[in-house]
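Attaching the record inline, Q. Sequence:
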Amino acid sequence: MSLANTILIIHFLFVFFVVGGLPVIWVGAWLRLNFVRNIWLRVIHLTAILFVVGESLFGVVCPLTIWEDKLRQLEPDGSFIQRWLHRILFYDLPEDILTIAYLLFAILIVATFILIPPYRRNTPI
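Structure, as predicted:
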């Protein structure tokens, strides 16, 4: 596997954590699973989306995208992984729309912090 594909997979896993983490927290709280109230998980999740929002608001391109693009110039391969993960990760939308979507998603995550507060210790629900 190429280094560019490795970075693309890491990028995908980051996005999957940010996007998939929110429904996992809600469903986990409904099922009374303690791990969704872990303070570290929740702070890392919140930090991840705030990083994305910050990048978008300041017009900064994601470092993972930059690294992958540079490596693609050195080792172009057009693999199956590249084609499919690019279709999942990258959309041809105006930056303003993406920034609004990121901001709204961040607001949902902050609201989740209030509605389903994390615990500082492993205390039962």
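The first helix runs from residue 3 to 30. The helical segments are 3-30, 39-57, 63-74, 80-89, 95-115.

More tomorrow.
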